[in-house]
Amino acid sequence: MGLFDSITKREKPQKKAPSAIKREVTSRHDIDVVPLEEDVIAAELVKPQIRYVRKIVVTSYSDLERISDELQGGNIVIVDLGPLESRPDLIEKVAEQIKGMVNALDGQAARICRHEIKLLLVPSDIKIAK
User: Fold this and answer.
1) Residue 109 domain-assigned (yes or no)
2) Are 90 and 61 in contact (CB under 8 A)?
3) Is 91:98 a contact under the CB 8 Å cutoff?
4) Average pLDDT over every residue of 11-36
5) Where are the beta strands (DSSP E) in the chain?
6) Is residue 4, in this structure, part of any structural domain at all?
7) How far apart are CA 119 and CA 104, in angstroms?
8) Residue 20 lies in a domain
9) Domains of the chain: total
10) Which of 21, 25, 54, 76 is the least buried, fewest Cβ under 10 Å from its Cβ?
11) What is the domain extent for residue 74?
12) In what order do the strands lie in the sheet with 108-111?
């Protein structure tokens, strides 16, 4: 027997019986069990955040606070300025307030109706493709 014979000599792998494989798999005792607390924390991290699309009809300045609360909560807001159409001076002031609020919260706003005055307001983590 030469020096290279032991390197080049190949042994045929021995086949195990299916029952031996089954016993080998089921006899493992080194599997870590994750405590329940870690499962709960992981589920909370993976749990999607629930968001809502809210429609708010603006009739006065008090409705602006509701819009701000919804945007800060991460919800999408559809603002209907229809009731203020008869008062153009009030619409301008309310629109400026909404624009300032959205900019302060790093959100975005877009008009969604051509014939009616309706705005779509989204929080900072959602973008509007214009």
Assistant:
1) yes
2) no
3) no
4) 59
5) 53-57, 76-80, 108-111, 118-122
6) no
7) 17
8) no
9) 1
10) 25
11) 53-122
12) 53-57, 76-80, 118-122, 108-111
Cα separation, 70 vs 67, in Å, equals: 5
Residue 6 lies in a domain: no
In this structure, the dihedral spanned by the alpha carbons of residues 62, 111, 90 and 77, taken in order and rounded to 10 degrees, is 0
Region at 105 (left for phi over 0; alpha for psi -120 to 50; beta for the rest) = alpha
Rg (CA), the chain: 32
Structure confidence by residue, pLDDT tens digits, 67-79: 999 999 999 999 9
Q: State the pTM of this model.
A: 0.63
Task: State the CATH number of the domain containing residue 59.
Answer: 3.30.110.150
CA-CA distance, 84 to 125, in Å (whole number)? 30
The residue among 81, 68, 80 whose CA lies nearest residue 123 is 68
